[in-house]
Write a structure and sequence with these properties.
This protein has eight helices and ten strands. By secondary structure, it is an alpha/beta fold. The chain folds into two domains: about 130 residues, Tetrapyrrole methylase, N-terminal domain (Cobalt-precorrin-4 Transmethylase, domain 1), CATH 3.40.1010; about 100 residues, Methyltransferase, Cobalt-precorrin-4 Transmethylase, Domain 2. Helix 4 packs across helix 5 and helix 7 crosses helix 8. S-adenosylmethionine binds next to strand 10.
Length: about 240
């Protein structure tokens, strides 16, 4: 009996939102895959899926991987880390089952897979066992300043990237020493971020970019109270301080 050659795992960065911002390599490997795996919430769909949707074929086998509820209290609960571990273990097994039958699996990730991308948790479970290729994607950090129309850094500027899920004190300490900065994971963290920016006198420099290159894209100055209604898919950009 001949043994089946396992399929390949492709961790594909698919860019920030606009389906045209997917790289040629991610596009090609998507077409060379029989299975498309994607993270999704209870409502179905998901950003990564909507980015690749125009590029899907009828015969692609879709593998939705439904996150346990991640918002609000559940994410702060003591059970949350174990829930997530079980989720990644179980879905990695589902992916492995396809790979074992010889199918290539494209696991799609909004932005870049290794830049706060959940792809890395599946990579950690599967990449040693299966032939794996990771393709970088255009990250929200690169996209926000372009949508805003203001350069992020030049000459000897340093850029500080801050997940807004850090404590208020930690955000303040890091912003105080930053030249340019990008804050990620906004939404319910926005009031905290605005308090810090105001305290250190940098609120006027900061801009919110919500859903960059996607439907519903918005650019709002952080001085505007309406920014606090923005969702999780937003970044706050403090562009170049010095004139270009
Ligand atoms: C889990 S991280 C994933 C980052 C992603 N891998 C990347 O390279 O951009 C999710 C955060 O990325 C940011 N983000 C991702 N896509 C975005 C977009 N199109 N517009 C604005 N922010 C975005 C938001 O700050 C969001 O809270």
């Amino acid at each position: 009996m001949t043994e089946t050659t396992p399929g390949k795992l492709y961790g594909l960065g698919v860019g920030p939102g606009d389906p045209e911002l997917i790289s040629m390599k991610s596009y090609r490997l998507l077409q060379e895959s029989q299975v498309v795996a994607y993270p999704t919430g209870r409502a179905g769909g998901g950003n990564a899926l909507s980015i690749v949707e125009p590029h899907l074929r009828e015969d692609h086998i879709m593998l939705p991987m439904m996150y346990p509820a991640t918002a609000g209290k559940v994410a702060d609960s003591p059970e949350y880390p174990q829930l997530m571990t079980d989720f990644y273990d179980d879905t990695a097994n589902e992916i492995a089952a396809h790979l074992d039958t010889g199918r290539n699996v494209a696991l799609i990730c909004q932005g870049d897979p290794f830049f706060y991308g959940s792809y890395m948790y599946w990579h950690a479970r599967l990449a040693e066992k299966y032939d794996t290729t990771v393709v970088p994607g255009i990250s929200s950090v690169m996209t926000g300043p372009v949508v805003l129309g203001k350069p992020l850094c030049h000459r000897t500027d340093t850029v500080t990237v801050i997940p807004a899920t850090l404590s208020e004190e930690e955000i303040e300490a890091r912003l105080k020493v930053a030249d340019s900065a990008v804050l990620m994971k906004l939404g319910r963290t926005l009031p905290k971020v605005r308090r810090v920016l105001k305290r250190i006198g940098r609120l006027d420099e900061a801009w919110l970019v919500e859903r960059a290159t996607m439907e519903g894209e918005r650019v709002i100055p952080m001085t505007d109270d309406s920014v606090e209604k923005a969702g999780y898919f937003s970044i706050c950009v403090l562009p170049c301080k010095t004139p270009v």
